[in-house]
Amino acid sequence: DPKTSTAMQGVSVIPLVILLSFSESRILGRRDDHQQALHGPSYHQVYRSAGEAYKFLGPERFKALALIMFSQYLQKCLYEEQVQRIKNVTEFAKTCSTGIDTAQCGKSVVTIVLDEICKSPEDVAKYPAHAECCAKPDPDRNTCFLAHKMTTAESLGPYNRPKLEEICKDYQENRDTLMGHYLYEMARRHPFVHSSHALIVTKYFEKIADDCCQDVSVSGQCFAEKMASHAKGLRQRSAIHKHNCDILVKNGEHTVKTIKMIQASEKIPKASFENVREIGQDIGKIYIDCCSGDAMECTIDMIKFTAKICEKRKALSTKFDKCCGNEGTDTENWECIIKTYDEKPDDLSPQAREFIDGPDVCKDYANQKDVYLDRFSYEYSRRHSEFSTALHLRIREVYLEMLTRCCQEEDSHVCLVKSEDLLHKEILVSQQLLKQNCDALQKLGTYYYQNGLLIQYAKKIPQAADSDLIDITNAITGVGSTCCKMEEDRQMNCYERELDMIVEEICRKQESAFVSEKLAQCCGLSYTRRRWCLAAQEVDKSYTPPPFSPDFFKFGVDLCNITSPQDLVIRKQTLLIHLVKLKPDIEEEQIKNITVTFLSMVDQCCKADAPEGCFTVEGPKLIEKCRAILGALGGVPVTVQ
Fold first, then answer.
1. Cα distance between residue 446 and residue 454, in whole Å
2. Which of 98, 344, 470, 633 is the most exposed place for a label (fewest CB within 10 A)?
């Protein structure tokens, strides 16, 4: 594309060698500590200036990260438009990097990027919140843009993937342009993926292109196989990043740091409490920067953290030796570190009894409450890496309740011993629920398992749209299909993490107007409890079923034209949802009776010489059967979609 090539020549967005092998020597730069803790949605604060970032990162890495930022903030802008914005902010940062001391040069990277975004108006149809956000002062301006990021692929339209021969031709002849376009598309379609991972993903894509373009005759199959796994991994990591950012916004910095400390305790159980707690604090700060949209500070944090871990690796885990060699780039070393797991120490006792039987439990807790609770979580987590992070947080909450109550008693030790069953109960409930669901999925298969979930959720939130109920239960079934096949010690971490993300998405979609008071109450809880709240809901007693109407049941010749098995499944599931919405206390045998009759009617009429005439006769019979089973229902008319 001549137009693209010209634009690229003017700014050299991502020379490949710079993007993929950022020099380890750059990690020596320092930055000031955060001025204050960050709470709530307006968590961005003034970080290093654009000139300082440019000086630390170098021009080419600065440009690559600027592309990520502009693509994640303005997701519908063309690549060429972003190139011009990158050129503008890069020239500004370069000038400021020479030591010029002006008010403008003192501005943070995010402020400079948003100034560039707000310099000219945008199409209201593409960015309806642009003017509103730009009118706000910092940091509210940034918070506004973050809140209006488009999270669904449908918002951006379909991706027109280049032909394979074009990819391989560009890879050989114009690699920088190819990689620039890939980073642009990836960042705008995954607006919450952290910049450090965006660079890692870009390196993986470069390797795929290198492997698959060696032999054009097999490049199609090669790309299809490798990109499927690549894209799946990107979606998963992007979802985890967004989930962690949601936790930061809604539950605060302390919760994120506790989560990261727990995860570090599980991964490197031989490291000391002090070192693990420090790692949790450091990663918590990284998330604050990454979730604020500051791709440059996010990457600098990653570089410094990687260097710190490698410097202290002897005290943390010998497993980190493979992550800290000179042959690895900073992004490769970071990825290696976060994926590393060490074994438990040989001398680690099975239980940490000092938190129940210790002579000074209440005194130690009173002296340093947060540190004491962190030590409890550290000791519990390093012994039980098979537990999910969310379960560890719930165990911590239960233990805190025990301390709060028992430390007021005359004999606190007796109270703690008697209350210990509460910890065991929390663990047992989680283990049993996981086992029940995995067993049910194995016994029933995905189709009938999802149908069971549909009945449950149509009763819990009958006000939800049919399509939403199908999507939710399909996602939950997918979680079970994936996590229940894992090794036993990995199942709970996978299962609870993925379900928590689904519930987070349910709550996010409902934020503007919850369909029910019960759902609003559950979504208002901490993220460790909201899923359990939703699971505990049964029939929504506040729901009034609509009066029976034949319009809820449309049986026609279109059922014979369904060629996709999945489309037929959706039609059957929609019927199932309607039955539950019309009669929330409907029994399983009644549902089975209607479903069998429905399938028999479809089979009979689609084989008939005149299918339309058959449906005209048999359809009303089935509707009358539904009416008889459901009974004469009154109520407030509502639309069942």
1. 12
2. 98
